[in-house]
Structures
1.
Amino acid sequence: MKLLGFLATCTIAALTLGARAESPQTRALSLEDCIKIALEHNLDVQIQRINPAIANFSLGASYSSYDPTFGLSGNHSYNLSPGGVDTEGRSFNGQESETDRFSSSLQGLLPWGLNYELGGTMADRYGTVPVGTNRFPFETTSGDVGALTLRQPLLKNFWVDSTRLQIYLNKQNVKISELDVRLQIITTVSDVEQAYFDLIHAQEAVKVQQQALELAERLVAENRRRVEVGALAPLDSKQAESQAASARADLLATQSTRDTTERVLKNLLSDNYGDWANVTVQPTDALLAIPQQFNLQESWRTGLAQRPDLLQAKLSLEKQGYIIRYSKNQLYPQLDLVGAYGYSASSTEFSGAFGQISSADNPFYSVGAQVTIPLGNTSARNNYKSAKATKEQLSLQLKQLQQATLIKIENAMAVAQTSFQRVSATHEARLYAGAALEAEQTKLDKGKSTTFVVLQLQKDLTSARSAEIRALADYNIALARLAQNEGSTLDRRQIGLHVTGAENNYAPAIFTQPPP
């Protein structure tokens, strides 16, 4: 028995130490604190902030078409041709030759579509040739050095080609990715606001249910005293006990809702939930109903000018316009202006050949045009029609999104106005419910009322208190959602976005004050 007692004592001590090690920590946070933490640690924001960097890398890669290409080659060849018999029946020896050939080139594309190639070739050929029945050695060095070849499109691919098209599209994609970051931040901030006010409401709801339980238990205690003195029937006392039990169940439900709501907020604030798992968030802001001036026309103008999704749709429409421009250019024939210029040389040795080139004694040039006309041009014509139809569709989608935005803003404003009116109405209802319960409790004390009526009024007061705090939370949430629909959340919360200039770092830096 002593051993069992010792083990039980050790177990209790271990559990106590574990409970102390894992005791919850309370962290008081304002709404502004929560927003700052979320902007730094929210995983959705962190994921989205990488996209501008990826888009910029893609843009940089699209400029690679303008990178010049340098090539260098060299080879050695050998050739032995057989001898034979000439027309007069005389035999002759075959020819033997070896050639060393070297060439280099620098070629590329310029932004206005000009293709260029600068290079040269030098070949040294030596061996023996038959002359009658004898073989004589020979050596010849020749080449074209400093040859410049140009090709400039004049119709197709003149004002826009595939490279310029891709660069333009990637530039627009960078802007779209930055708007994605802005949209994600607006969404996250709005979600944090809702979760924060929902948590305040949930904590206040727990207090309301605790007060309801205290009222019910007080009534139970009073009824028991009345039963003991014979002033109340035992059946009436059971009604109060039933109400107390129901209040305890409601309290447990509201506590569970509070814990769930708190986890929602902590998930928005963290990129490592383990750091927050044992933290209790205590909001420091109060639920207030600050009157706002609503102007539907002004909110519409703000929404149409600032909503990131609308700006993205406009950029997509601009992208499609450039695609149409490219597709139209592809309808034209291929007409290229071509030209070449350089110097030739021929000598029995390398030094002589290079001497001729340096003296520029043997220049050559050519100029001309090349035209290619596709018969039918089916692909280009259908691509152009498809691009125009796509632009029309995007234009309609933009109009649809604008209309949906106006409706969302109007609905959000109506919800905010109604929520503000509910705050006043529920406040008055709570005051009346409290006064009614107090008066009925006084009547019950004088024996002029019943427990059933008092219990009903207690329920009414609890409902009125819950409705009031719900209305306060809904009003503040409605203001946040109105700003979200307007796209003005960042201005409302004084949050700015700044693209850093660090190498390979294009992710927007987030701060709560305007940039210097």
2.
Amino acid sequence: MSILAQGALPVQLLSSYKPIVLAITLIPYAWLVSTKLEKDAGYFNLGSIKWSAIFLGTAVLALATALLIPIFWIGWPLMVIVLAATPLLYMQYRNKRVPADRQYKLKFGGIAEAAATRREAKLQKSANISLHGRNGRFPLPQKETPEAAAYAQMEQWVAGPLLSRAWRLDIVPVQGGVIPVVTRDGVRTRGEPVANELALPAMDILRRVAGFVVEDRRRPQRGTLQIKAPEAEATATITSSGGSAGLSVRVEFETIAMHKIPVTELGFTPKQLEFLETFGDAGERRGTVLVAAPAGQGLVTTLYALAARHDAYTASVKTFERLIEAPIEGVDQVQFDPSNASLDYSTAFRSIIRRGPDVVTCVDASEKGIGSALVGANIDMLLTYAGFGVGTSQEALQGWIRSCGGDTKQAAKSLRGIINQRLVRRLCHTCRTPIQVSPEQAAKVGIRTERPIQLFRAGGKVQVKNRIEECPECNGLGYSGMIGVFETLPFTSEGKSALELGNLAGMIQAARKSGGVLLAEAALFHVRSGVTSFEEAQRVLQPQTQKPAAAAGAPAATKRQQA
């Protein structure tokens, strides 16, 4: 009689879940061996048949271990150990026979690294901008930390100017803190003051990404970084320096691109471009052209464009600068080294002249001795663009006479002309508004016409379906970008005679008679062309009232120049 018939208790020889556990353990091992390890052994000629046999034998041994040991929860862990040991053994065998860059490596910190990557991605998603320097992207600080507050302040300073296509952000020190000043299209806007406790760490973030020695808050430092936002990105030049008032930082957006504008796109009228051509040809490449503009009115950009218009591969073109703002293709740019006590500014310039260049651009020619160096050179073989950071053509002439040691005859000897400039804002072509102006109204603003003409004024608004909204192109300002307004005064023998006598006003009048174009006339050309508005031209030119020129060397002239 069977045991069951005799009333014995039934015995469960095999549970229902244990086969499932064994299968779940074997399937990943089989997948790893068949799809990865066997193919890898064949690729590196490590004996794929041998290792296939080892892998199969390991699977049989592991399964036997789990089945033959009576206690499942002892046999199954041993099965897992056997299955794991063979791939580890293969990895050790393999790594000794393959190149270092193809070796397998165990990454026990992978989970932590993945978590950190996810946290960083989340932070970047919440940020308005990201900074990128020589060492890659600047890592965002964790929330609720002092570093996070500093980063948020830096974002508040930088994001707005970046999105509005501003030129420059100046963070200037005041009592107990700093004030941000944004320059967009020549118009400066002041922000709210920020206390030093928050401002200095925020400024240090920009300085750190630009590669500065952050601990050094006195020495001038300069560097670049990339600023990226979802809607815009730009290359920025960062400059910092310290003084008695505190640390100041300047952020210039797309500085290099701004200094690489061709002469034909600066804003010269067709008549003025003809004037430039008179000393552009090799046969007429001689004399000195004074180029003047107040601070922030595009002097360096114009000087760079004038230098770049000459073929640097058929002529020797050099620049002499206190600070090189941007590279010019083919041009030998020399930067003055103030730390060399044995070589002052004018002497360093003379050394450049002695090398026999065809064209020289001196970005700052106001220092005494520059004019004397040029006059002493072979003026029939050298064309020089001499820069002066002043407001009028008369002031540029005064500065030139002073750099020639006060000798008006020497100053007149090599002069070819004067270029004086301002920057006006361009009307936004998306929202500018046409207006009809009668001949009488046009005459009041200096435009002579016998019939009504169409001019334009700033709009700032556009119609979207049935709604009036701010123009997306100019952010409601009515202006977008800038263009130069130039005064060009060619010199004739009559003008030079007036200069030799110290009659600067007479020299300007002679240049005017010989085809010179005044600032107001150039501004009206852009107004008539619809490039800018009369209100904008008036805003830029009206404060620049030209006073009668005094005789060269007079005390009044010297005082005005020094001021």
